[in-house]
């Protein structure tokens, strides 16, 4: 039987096809690996970006918080002082009328009435006036380190701050205080304190700022 003249060339062709197919398969595998690596790298970058975004929390709103508490205290203190002064004036006028009535009724002997009763009332008023300023100076100082509209977000931020600033905040209380701002809604404020003095609170706030935190003083 005579062999075909094309038979010897068929084997090299098959070898070439196998060689090319193996190379194409290798290229495809490498391409898939590169694409997978790019996707993995992209996910890592996005996760890192999200962490950086979360690290920028808290969102602190410039609310005039520090003025609200003192104003209320001053108003209450002022009301109490004014009421005491008005009472003292009423007492004085009443006593003066009592002093003048005997004079009108031609009783000169009673013009110099005993001053024991007004002296007692004056002493009582002065004693109360001395107590009122003392309560005004017994202030508590706090640091606000966050203000968020959601209670869940505030709890999450509270845990993050306690972990990040463990050394600074371990000696002070860290709590969430709700504040109704009317049309703006209810905000959940993260407050640190109370501090024994304004200087101590400011020093702690300065140390927080050095470590990347944000805060301001309220009292």
| Low-confidence sequence ranges | 1-7, 77-82, 91-104, 119-132
Q: What's the CATH H-level superfamily name of the largest domain?
A: Sporulation related repeat
- Anisotropy-based shape: rod-shaped
Gross CATH architecture of the largest domain: 2-Layer Sandwich
The first-level CATH class of the largest domain is given as Alpha Beta
Domain count: 3
Helix segment count?
6
Could you write a compact summary of the structure shown?
65% of the residues lie in helices and 13% in strands.
Description:
The protein is an alpha+beta fold. It has three domains: 9-49; 67-137; 141-218, Sporulation related repeat (Alpha-Beta Plaits). Helices cover 65% and strands 13% of the residues. It has six helices and four strands; from the N terminus they run H-H-H-E-H-H-E-E-H-E. Helix 2 runs antiparallel to helix 3 (116-137). The chain is rod-shaped, with a radius of gyration of 41 Å.
Jot down its keywords.
alpha+beta; four-stranded antiparallel sheet; 219 residues; disordered N terminus; rod-shaped; Alpha-Beta Plaits
Q: In terms of topology, how is this protein built?
A:
Layout: H1 7-55, H2 65-104, H3 116-137, E1 141-148, H4 151-164, H5 166-169, E2 174-180, E3 186-195, H6 198-210, E4 216-218
Antiparallel strand pairs: 1-3, 1-4, 2-3
